[in-house]
Design goal:
- The chain is of the alpha+beta class.
- The protein has three domains: 18-132, Killer Toxin P4, Chain A (2-Layer Sandwich); 149-237, 2-Layer Sandwich (Phosphorylase Kinase, domain 1), CATH 3.30.200.20; 244-459, Transferase(Phosphotransferase) domain 1 (Transferase(Phosphotransferase), domain 1, Orthogonal Bundle).
- It contains 16 helices and 13 strands.
- Strands 6-10-11-9-8-7 form a six-stranded mixed beta sheet, with helices on both faces.
- Helix 1 (31-51) runs antiparallel to helix 2 and helix 8 (258-278) packs antiparallel against helix 15.
């Protein structure tokens, strides 16, 4: 038992002076990756613990390289206030131990610890995702008062040399993208798209505030905007390595290592989980594909074009109608492509397809071995899984010494879980993050392969049942 006495009332206060910091003498063999994983986990726990009923939160995080896992918890004395708990944990004193394999920070008001060795049971972990959701009204109101910066059209013309072809980075369904250099020297990416005057000014600005306040390390940040007649210009941070598809099957000569590929798989899952469950409004991307996953200079992923469809007017938003009845893109969930049924699981399906592309280095619509019965990557992956040979899906350009068989099997099976035709059978993206973070290799449930013809029949039957139910209820 610890005792303390002072000449002032300290019972309801946290003393934010760090007392003891203990660090291991052993440095992680993957210092950069270990530091990144540990900092992410500790940062999440520092937010989650003050929001927990008992001021305690414990969780794990997988290190991108190797088989290491970080175990950590954060805890405050229950007699202090929530704000004092938050202030105490935000001191981040334990961060000074990184990248050693364990560290502890003990304060009069709070205690934080991380380690590569488990020091709590699996049944003692906390569901921190629910605690990380922004639920405090005052904070949300303050955020919504802010918004992205308004740029002048002249500024953007100068930044892009009058939108010259030399500065054009690419284009697609939503418009053209240019590289620009602002007056302060910052490099940015400027997307030019079309906006009709029928869009209400207030509604447009509200949508921009929603997108401008999305801050996550795996989501491309919206810096500002400009309206010029029917044209809308969105200013984003510039990604030096451009998009993922260029490294998988484009003109880039660099081959992504397994460590880099896993980091992209994991980071993309975290970004989507944030959009679906952790932001104060649910944002469904609808267009997850390798060209919409950008890479920074450390090959960390940032999801682009999220929420862009919210800004486009209904008469110009052709994405839904173009997807309806078409499976040609290869990324689109069958229930959305055939009948326009939209939910977060549409993104889950597309994410699963992207993971298969990352693992195999093949396009999702690429004909495999010129066989007519495997017209796409998803069917091919299912066939390999059914025969127990899904390890052969791995990109031939990868060095087998970079990855373990068990890890590859797990990643492929997670991808297949995401591409199951039954919507309810697909995991939420927060569950995908948990599966990727979990270092155990427990037996997973048997998955069932389904061809696209079967998918069409199944979706049609489900829609028929729904329609008949509605008709009967109306009668």
């Amino acid at each position: 038992m610890l005792k303390r006495y002072e000449n002032n009332n300290f019972y309801s206060e946290g003393n934010n002076r760090p007392i003891v910091v203990l660090c291991s003498n052993t440095t992680s063999p993957q210092p950069t990756e270990f530091r990144k994983a540990a900092e992410e986990l500790l940062s999440d726990l520092q937010i989650a613990a003050p929001r927990a009923t008992n001021y305690y939160a414990a969780s794990t995080r997988k290190v991108a390289a190797g088989n290491a896992t970080v175990y950590a918890f954060a805890q405050c004395q229950q007699n202090i206030s929530q704000s004092d708990c938050s202030k105490c944990l935000q001191l981040r004193t334990v961060y000074s131990c990184l990248p050693t394999t364990s560290g502890r920070s003990m304060d009069n008001g709070c205690f934080t610890r991380y380690d590569t060795t488990p020091f709590f049971g699996r049944n003692e972990t906390t569901d921190i995702l629910s605690l990380l959701r922004d639920g405090e009204t005052s904070i949300l109101q303050e955020l919504l008062l802010q918004g992205p910066a308004a740029y002048s059209y002249t500024d953007l013309k100068v930044a892009t040399d009058n939108f010259s072809d030399e500065n054009k980075l690419g284009g697609g369904m939503h418009g053209e993208v240019y590289k620009g250099t602002l007056e302060n020297g910052d490099e940015v990416a400027i997307k030019k798209t079309f906006l009709t005057s029928s869009r209400g000014k207030k509604h447009f600005k509200d949508e921009l505030k929603i997108l401008g306040n999305v801050h996550h390390r795996h989501l491309l940040r919206l810096l500002g905007y400009c309206r010029k007649g029917p044209d809308l210009f969105l200013v984003h941070e510039y990604m030096e390595n451009h998009s993922l598809d260029q490294f998988l099957y484009g003109d880039k000569t660099t081959t992504l290592s397994w460590k880099q590929r896993f980091g992209i798989i994991y980071g993309t899952a975290r970004g989507l989980a944030y959009l679906h469950e952790q932001y104060h409004v649910t944002v469904i991307h609808r267009d997850i594909k390798t060209s919409n996953i950008l890479l920074d200079n450390e090959f960390q992923p940032k999801i682009a074009d999220f929420g862009l469809i919210r800004l486009l007017p209904e008469d110009k938003t052709r994405l839904s109608t173009e997807l309806a009845g078409s499976l040609n893109s290869g990324y689109v969930a069958p229930e959305y492509a055939i009948h326009g049924h939209l939910s977060e699981k549409v993104d889950t399906y597309s994410y699963g397809v992207v993971v298969l592309e990352i693992v195999s280095g093949k396009r999702c619509k690429e004909v495999i071995h010129n066989k007519s019965d495997t017209p796409n990557l998803v069917d091919h992956a299912w066939n390999l899984y059914e025969s127990g040979t899904h390890l052969s899906l791995v990109d031939d350009k990868l060095d087998p010494s970079e990855y373990s068989t068990e890890e590859v099997h797990k990643i492929i099976e997670i991808a297949l879980m995401c591409t199951q035709p039954t919507v309810s059978a697909r995991p939420a993206m927060s569950e995908v993050v948990t599966l990727l973070s979990d270092n155990t290799l427990e037996e997973r449930p048997r998955l069932r392969s389904t061809t696209y013809d079967e998918v069409k029949i199944q979706v049609a039957m489900e829609s028929s049942i729904i329609s008949n139910t509605i008709a009967v209820s109306q009668w």
